[in-house]
Amino acid sequence: MQITQPPEISDLFAESEHEEIALGEDRGCGYGGLIAIHNTALGPAVGGTRFWNYASDESATVDVLRLARGMSYKNALAGLPFGGGKAVIIGDSRTSDRARIFQAHGKFVESLGGRFITAEDIGTTPADMELVNRETRHVAGLPAKSGNPSPKTAFGVFRALQACAQHRWQTDSLEGRTVALQGCGSTGYFLAQLLHEAGAKLVVCDVDEERVARVVEEFAAVPVATEKIFEIAADIFAPCALGGVINDETIAKLRVEIVTGSANNQLLAEKHGEALIEKGILYAPDYVANSGGIINGCRELLGWDEAVTRDKISGIYDRMLALLALSEREGVPPFRAADQLARELISAAGEARFGEKPSSVML
Asked: Where exactly does CATH 3.40.50.720 map onto the chain?
């Protein structure tokens, strides 16, 4: 296992506020991975491992840096004693050599000495984390423990949707509301189930036709082409696939009142959060809405039982309502209010480590 920081990564890292980024390589099995640690003021960095076929090393680096920062903010606002980090494995997740790939990844995680704890993400599974666990104990989301976080992430997003509905329409009922759901994978599927049970009408898309067919059959959803999902006249747009889907092109097409989903980094840039406000669309910060997965991981990381975990995830409703109220009082978009609040919590934790009194900023 070779661990380096190539020049192109160093240049991007120098422009960020992260503590560490490293590249791990095992050419014998074709493994190449990045781990970024954003901040450890609140505790060890925790974040999933994403397995994705990136277009370039630069795009992988940008993604891992953004995802790591999002995890710092997510953990801070969820009140968890963890910092933020993220890992990506660069390549085709359909590889048949998963055992060697994930054992190499486990060695990479172990090399950081506990500063980073990982779990599953897009392209990875609890079974993959068992392979990682052969090489390091710094891993969560194992099948015999907290397991697949997707149902819990979906429940948290559902509670965030209810909070947004309450804020926008003065009722948290989603019955009769139309939801345009992008992405029918693990989390998207479970969110579709919750929405269907709540009486919502679903319009769905995914690059995988089998996933779409399953949601259509089980939850009476209407399928549309992936490029058409942004044009659907609906009450809510729920992005549950990859990030960056809220951009110049898609904002012009959106015909909804609320954007809330499980995808990370939904805004391509901050200006797109401002553009949603100008269009009268309520955007719920993604790292507040999708924090159910990491909260579920606390069953392993902090020894919480399942009932406590569910209560904490359900509390996303109150945290989102409080954040939206703060946004309204301060006259700033919700995503800016969330970013500022997270930075204050992280800063307070950093000050406390040096013996100074932390601030009392809490949701």
From this structure: 150-291+318-341
Strand, coil or helix: 19: coil
Whole-angstrom Cα distance, residue 33 to residue 116? Answer: 14
Does residue 160 carry a pLDDT above 90? yes
pLDDT for 57 equals 87
Instruction: Please list the residue range(s) of the chain that carry CATH number 3.40.50.10860.
Output: 2-71+83-133
CATH architecture of 150-291+318-341: 3-Layer(aba) Sandwich (3.40)
User: One-letter amino acid identity for 232?
Assistant: I
Position 166, amino acid: Q
Alpha-helix runs per DSSP H in the chain: 7-14, 57-77, 98-110, 126-133, 150-169, 186-197, 209-219, 248-251, 270-278, 286-289, 292-301, 306-314, 316-330, 334-353
Is the Cβ–Cβ distance between 9 and 23 less than 8 Å?
Answer: yes
Pairwise CA distance, residues 82 & 74, whole Å: 10
Say if strands 31-39 and 2-4 run parallel, antiparallel, or are unpaired: unpaired
Mean pLDDT of 324-331: 95
Q: Which H or E element spans position 331?
A: none
- Fold of domain 2-71+83-133: Rossmann fold (3.40.50)
20-26 and 31-39: which strand pairing?
antiparallel
| Residues 6+ positions from 317 with CB-CB distance below 8 Å | 159, 160, 162, 163, 172
Query: Residue 315 CB: number of other CB atoms within 10 A?
Result: 17
* 226-285 pLDDT tens trace: 999 999 999 999 999 988 999 999 999 999 999 999 999 999 999 999 999 999 999 999
Enzyme catalytic residues = 86
